Amino acid sequence: MEFGLEEIKKYLPHREPFLFVDKVLTLNPGKDISGSIKFNDDSFFFKGHFPNRPVVPGVIIIESLAQLGGLLIYKSFEKDLLGKDPALIAVDSAKFKSPTLPNEELDIRAELIKSKLNIFKISGKAYKEDKLIVEVGITATVLK
User: 107: part of which helix (H) or strand (E)?
Assistant: First the structure.
């Protein structure tokens, strides 16, 4: 199941310039999701991070993975959760293996590890040209 920005915006409350999922490539409700994000050289954060050697901030990549995980949660439990706001509870064990530079596209993936009482544990991974560059554990919920 592939879909783009308009479908993504039906599920996530995020909007530009803070929407960090360009498209969804695969979706297995209750299991996993994959998508992509490209950080264009005119992205707002490159002006200050860093002016002479721009690098995508690690927290932006984590946010991208959290948003993708949010899409997985909303699509998996749409009847109960759609219209409720997402909330990040914890970021665990984030590991960065390589920087992401302007105009690079990341293949992003999220897997639902556990869900209990509207608490969701997600494993997120980002790849650049099939090489793992970021992995993170995310705990999220939805607000009523």
Answer: strand 104-116
Active site residue 49: yes
| Residues 121 and 92: beta-carbon distance below 8 Å | no
* CA distance linking residue 26 with residue 3, whole number of Å: 9
CATH of the domain at 44: 3.10.129.10
Which pLDDT value is given to residue 82?
Answer: 81
User: Token match 């039906």: residue?
Assistant: 10
Express each pLDDT in 17-36 by its tens digit: 999 999 999 999 999 999 99
Annotated catalytic residue: which of 14, 49, 84, 128? 49
Task: With CA atoms as reference, report the closest residue to 36 among 75, 8, 76.
Answer: 8
Full domain range(s) for residue 19: 5-143
